[in-house]
Amino acid sequence: MELDEYLPVLQKADARFADAAAEAVLARGWGAPVPGCSGWTLADLVWHLAEVQHFWAWVVRTRATDPGTYVEPVRRPDDELLGYALARSAELETVLAGADPAERVWTWAPRQDVGFVLRRQAMEAVVHTVDVEQVLGDVRPLPADVGLDGLDEWLEVMVPGALPQGPPEDAHPVVLHAVDAGVERTLFPGSRPVPIARLTGTAGDLLLAVWRRVPLEVLTVDGDGLQAAAMLDVVRLE
């Protein structure tokens, strides 16, 4: 995806997240468990995304080069969460729309610019929208371009972030075949001459599988599925 495509993805995900969260509150209540986030309730999920968006809006708005002066928001009561989350999404979208992607800001990754924040926050919202859809019981398929870009971001950014020293010695390649995008990607390429497995599915399902939102059973697994799952589990993200 191109840089100018991320903001519309974020806006669409934010809108869907808000609608699904409101429906889930009525259907299941704030204490409903979130299948994709062990130990979280619906209230925890909505607060988490609002808090994340509050932080990154502050980073971009202030052009922060150090997060040390950031003041964390106070947790809102459940009956204020939907309104607070909507305000935080609108704030993040507004500051990103008004910023040059090339402008330098602090991030936790080697790339230190607004463009990184734009992409990361689009994908953050996409995955958490699936989380709230799972609570609601109405999970919608991800577009192929969004799923593939999210998968690429996971491989290019999240894997090196989780494994700064590189793959472990016992790593094996796992091929990820996105049928709707007609491409393949590889986790831990070059670690062994032959992949341990090939996982085939839509780009969206592959993205959700590597983020552990869906089991590998939703994919077609050729090869050693248990070892493939173990390779994905090597990538531990906070």
Explain this structure to me?
- With 238 residues, the chain is an alpha+beta fold.
- 53% of the residues lie in helices and 8% in strands.
- Strands 2-1-3-4 form a 4-stranded mixed β-sheet.
- The radius of gyration is 18 Å and the shape is globular.
- The two termini are 25 Å apart.
- 37% of the residues are buried.
- The model has no long low-confidence stretch (mean pLDDT 97).
- Mean pLDDT across all amino acids: 97
Distance between the termini: 25 Å
- For the biggest β-sheet, the strand order reads 2-1-3-4
Task: Give the low-confidence spans.
Answer: none
Task: Please give the count of helices.
Answer: 7
Helix content range: 40-55%
SS strand fraction: 5-15%
Shape: globular
Number of DSSP E strands: 4
Question: What features would you highlight for this structure?
Answer:
alpha+beta, four-stranded mixed β-sheet, single chain, 238 residues
SSE order and pairing:
Layout (H helix, E strand, L loop, with lengths): L2 H26 L13 H21 L15 H20 L16 H23 L7 H19 L11 E5 L4 E5 L9 E5 L1 H8 L9 E4 L1 H10 L4
Parallel strand pairs: 1-3
Antiparallel strand pairs: 1-2, 3-4
Helix pairs in contact: 1-3, 1-4, 2-3, 2-4, 5-6
Compose a concise summary of this entry:
The protein has 238 residues and is of the alpha+beta class. Helix content is 53%, strand content 8%. The chain has a 4-stranded mixed beta sheet.
